Amino acid sequence: MKTAKQYTEEQQGYRLHVLPTNKYKTVSIVVKWKAPLEKETITRRALLPSIMEKATENFPSARKLQGALEDLYGTALSADASKKGENHVITFRMEVVNDRYLKDEDSILKKALHILNDVLFHPKSEGEGFSSSVFKREKETLAQRIRSIKDDKMSYANTRLLDHMCSDEAYGVHAQGHLEDLEPLTNEELYSYYKNMLQEDELDVYVTGDVSREELLPLFNEYFVRSAADPAPSTTVSDIQVEEPREIIEREEMSQGKLHIGFRTHTFFGEEDYYALQVFNGIFGGFPSSKLFMNVREKHSLAYYAASRFESHKGLMFVFSGIDPADYDQAKTIILDQKKAVEDGEFTDEDVEEAKQQIIHQLKETMEHPYGLIEILYHQQLSGRQIEASELFERLEKVSHEDVVRIAKKVELDTVYFLTSLEKGDA
Amino acid sequence: MKTQEFHQINETIHEEKMDNGLQVFLLSKPEMVKTYGIFTTDYGSIDQTFTPLGEDKEITVPEGIAHFLEHKLFEKEDRDVFQDFTKLGASANAFTSFTKTAYLFSATSHVYENVRTLVDFVQDPYFSEQSVEKEKGIISQEIRMYDDQPDWRGFFGTIGSLYHKHPVKIDIAGTVDSIQHITKDDLYTCYETFYHPSNMVLFIAGNFEPEQMMDFIRENQQRKDFPEAPEINRRFPREPASAFKSEEAIEMAVSTPKAYVGLKEQVDGLSGEEILHNELLSDMLLDHYFSTSGKFYDELYQSGLVDDSFHFETEWEREFGFTILGGDSRKPDAFLRRLKKMLLSVKEEKISTEDFEKMKRKKIGEFMRALNSLEFIANQYTHYHMLGVNLFNVLPEIESLKKEDMEEFIENWIQESQMTTFQVKPKE
User: Which residues form the Peptidase M16 N-terminal domain (chain B) (predicted)?
Assistant: First the structure.
């Protein structure tokens, strides 16, 4: 998508996207490293951001690094890693208070960029590894985080659903890595992978705030320098046909059951059908006015939440609801009936219009948030299809009742997953 | 309509108190696409014992009723209000806290219709026996959802172990049992007492013309009738200064133990300004020692007693105040011993003038970043207004803080008797 003002510069080894706006009191910088999603590398990539943001050559401990950021009016720096379809993306985000003295020798933005450059390209190293104390501590922390997934039942149920549904696909790997790959990982192996990432990842940098291209370019040329890179080609995603829907029940010590259902949409970001998929999701389960909320919650009082969302780059859709373990059959039937109702055209033209307006509102709202806008633009960058916001809205407006019915039929049930309490006989 | 300009941050607030007592604030931001509105009543889960409007005998209502009322206000005789916002292309939500219930929308079109929808639905209740019964199933599942979340249990467990009898110790949503006792009549009683315009604040921020918006709201309010309302008589039990229990633990299916230290803050007799002053100082102090750059956090992290799930929060209100620190720990006993010792040793630590200036700069940056968000401004402006303070004076307040203020705050801060510890232990 193109916004009113947007500049993309091909810098050495990265694309710099500048989005000037006067809406914010801060300047936000987002750095995205992208590589194919693979079981072999995912654990290393999950560990890297937390090591990189802990210590650098110039700021050799977490306290010194954070202290330097705090000196810059508490500049915020964060890093995380996530799956985007069958790509893995490591994101660094920095938010700097706009001092409006950009050309000044001592500008905050300049100093902040200097720190960011250090974090990305000059982590604290010892021989052919990262700082051994940082490595050891962060490895323990990640192991801890992986073990704790189970403590958050909603995300645990999501993870288990994907384990079953995508066991033979790259998308089935865990974004936070796998214990069996983490335990044997050495500092040297990780460092060598980091060097590899510097060379091969595709790198995009976004800047938004009250800044101009003319001010930023010289700053980036001086303070954000990547050696020549050779990015790996993008992966094409595999689209699987469902042979036979599956039903899986697992038990844990818990009081509420988590009913999570996975579908294949066979529809991807940027495709013509993608707009109709969004509207379908709106009618089916995307909003409080959708069929899922109105029936599972309001009509039958079975749940506090019952909703659907879709993954744009992998062609998946998920329904999730928290229910009493005894209500499993009823809730499952009601949810699947709602999808059938959309297939049978049991909704009005007015419902279609309302869903579109909700989606457009949501998009506009997301675009007004600095990180939200950047996420939308990056989605487009990933799909290789850039369109104007106005065109995006136009395409949504064109979606018809018929299109929604067609998509409802195209979306295929894959796996019904129920994580429930230990008491037998409920489900 | 009054206008207040805040030059330093380049914002203007328009305000008016309506004839019926409703306080309205407007923040016009023509450069934004979005408009956000929040309608808040000074009524939360702690307001359990009070004298109903028009009566003279005090009553105590079932736990979780403020939250229950919040759910039920969305349902009308013929429709669900979510649908009204949907038709206007907006999204709506609501929340209940210890001290407030708030209804909100966000819209990128039909701004006036959305404001009207918000104000009208909150000011026009419809409760029936049947819909109250239906809601019990939904809220039971909401409560069960939280019951399965160990962080939530840890947080509320700590508060429960800090307070002897103050209703801040009860869950905001109540319990599956307590909500069974709620009736349609209870809801009307609470509604009439606490949803009187004179107990409420409306804040609209975003893309509109302020004079026109204020006229619109005024006309809307003038069309409605409300009885005269005296000041609400709420009663809270007398709460000792000390913590209820010095330690407490529960067992749950968790992979890693969770451990927390809770501190009961003293708010008795503090004015709004003093509450803000103390809240800022305690936040800065905790940040100085326990954020990623903090000396104490570093010690805890390096010695493997905590991981990055460690966090802290401090909440200061008219009726209560607390600070909670903690997170996952594989050695919870050692962690809690060390953390308590650190907190008690803050008095002996020295903060240099340079450190203090740094703490201030960080707080200012944090505040400026937060001002990017219309939601933050509207929610916090309302919050501070109800305490009798202006949000936009927070910045000058931070700037004027001196090292001596911090020293004085620390001097009176913690006694061991005000502390509690709480653990979520893995089930054997």
Answer: 63-150
